[in-house]
Amino acid sequence: MSLRLSTVILPYRRWSEGGRSAWVRAEQLGFHTAYTYDHLSWRSFRDGPWFGALPTLTAAAAATERLRLGTLVTSPNFRHPVTLAKELISLDDISGGRITLGIGAGGTGFDATALGQEPWSPRERADRFAEFVPLLDRLLTEDAVTHEGRFYAAHEARNIPGCVQRPRLPFAVAATGPRGLSLAARHGQAWVTTGDPKLYENGTPEQSVEALRGQLAKLSEACADAGRDTAGLEKILLTGFTPDRARPLQSLDAFVDFAGRHRELGFTEIVIHWPIPDSDFAADEKVFEQIAMEAAAQLD
After folding, report:
1. CA triplet 18, 21, 24: central angle to 5 degrees?
2. Residue 137 half-sphere exposure toward CB, CA atoms < 13 A
3. What is d(CA 10, CA 13) in angstroms, rounded to the nearest whole number?
4. Tens digits of per-residue pLDDT, 96-136?
5. Percentage of the chain with pLDDT > 70?
6. SS in 3 state form for 213-248?
7. Beta carbons of 20 and 57 less than 8 angstroms apart
8. Is residue 2's pLDDT more than 90?
């Protein structure tokens, strides 16, 4: 089974001061996809520069030719399906059909309160996500959509001519709970996980592998319930949030060992963070580039 290697480029640099060059370099290095976070701000970056995901991806689409582009992940925290669909159709057109939408239920970070609302409970996040994803699916595949739901409404929303990718751009659904996994099975072309957050501080790499094995088993059950073969669903691991932390990026051998163990579990794509000095994503740029250029050959 071939393993795709992708990266995620956080939108913290001005386009003219290193922002553009990272996306161009990602294409030169041969990454399958370059993603970015879709947040209004994020954790330790809150008081520093942070730019919007969709404008950044639009600029990246204009600066590259072959590289796939996407979000990891968009959420309902500050997005509405109607306006998001219009922007995604435009972005898919500008990129020539190179967009993947990573989408999740959102969390309790800064996005959850930036619009002045109280943070949603886990149940409400799940309820909103369960309505958001099917509606967005319709908006991206139908010329006109009317919907009156508990959380979202659309009145004769027009999305002509639709996506370049048919029937629509792919969804990569981030989920670990039963309701989210069901959405991934029914609407996703890919599934995304960061591992088990409970293991991040005190867990071991071996415990993390077992937790991921369990998540994959639950995904298979969700696919079976949806009448779908799980083999048809891409499985994406966003690294940096397992007990290994940054260790896989310390050397080419360390990464090949890490990626090989997770490929054996069934993952088809590994995503590594573009190095950011003095952050949780600090890494040696030379080692990072060596991994990008040489790891795939060692994993074949």
Report:
1. 155
2. 16
3. 8
4. 999 999 999 999 888 999 999 999 999 999 999 999 999 99
5. 100
6. HHHHHHHHHHHHHCCCCHHHCEEEEECCCCCCCCHH
7. no
8. no
